[in-house]
Write the C-alpha cells for this entry.
Amino acid sequence: MAAQIMTDPSLYLAELDESTTSSSRRESEEGLRRSLPDLSDDVFEEREGMVRNLVIYACADRERALAAGSPTVRPTWGTTAVGLIDAITAIWQAPVTPID
C-alpha cells in the first residue's frame, strides 16, 4: 500500500500533508538535519526522498517475495532491517559531487 501511495500523486499529497504535521516526524527530521550540517537543503531533500523510496520499495519487494513463496535475499525482517540501515547510512554519508 505504501508503494502505491508513493506513486499516486493524489494519495501522495494527502499522505504528505498528514505525515508532515506529525510532531515526531518533525523532531526526527530536525535531529537528522542537525547531524548532517554540511548537506545543503537541496541535497538533504533529495537524499530524504531516496531513503523513503528505498525503505518502501525494499519492504514491498520482500512482502511480494514472501507472498509468492519466493526466496528472499535476507532470511528475516530483522536482517532485512540491518541491510536497510547499512544502505541508508551510506546514502546520508555519501560525498556530495558538485554540479556545475
